[in-house]
Design brief:
four-stranded mixed β-sheet, globular, alpha/beta
Length: about 120
């Protein structure tokens, strides 16, 4: 890929609530011990990308990314148990991808892709 994704951000009204949500659902290590309380998500040696989760200026909300998981339905269940909502149920686009979408507690839409299906496999 010529221009790979190297960072992501999840911005909302309540940065701490979002940090707790993503940590609770995906087990991400998030460090917000800085003056801006910008939650740095460390990808470590997983091959994934790092990013940030924080409050936005003036109530700004934005996010755009997909997360590879081994069982999208199990993660949708976890999302709902942590205060999120399913937006698109697990859906297969034959020969391409199995995906789903959810809204986090602030309404940001995030995608899930089945890591065991399709061209994203290594």
């Amino acid at each position: 890929m010529a221009n790979p994704v190297v960072h992501f951000e999840v911005i909302g009204k309540d940065g701490k609530k979002l940090q707790d949500f993503y940590s609770g659902v995906f087990g991400w290590k998030i460090n917000a011990d800085n003056p801006m309380q910008y939650g740095i998500v460390d990808a470590g040696d997983t091959g994934g990308i790092g990013g940030g989760i924080s409050a936005g200026d003036g109530g700004t909300r934005q996010v755009t990314f997909y997360i590879a998981v081994d069982n999208p339905q199990a993660y949708l269940d976890k999302v709902e148990s942590q205060g999120g909502k399913t937006v698109m149920p697990v859906t297969e686009i034959p020969g391409m991808v199995i995906l789903a979408q959810f809204a986090d507690p602030e309404g940001n839409i995030v995608g899930l892709v089945d890591a065991n299906y399709g061209p994203q496999q290594s």
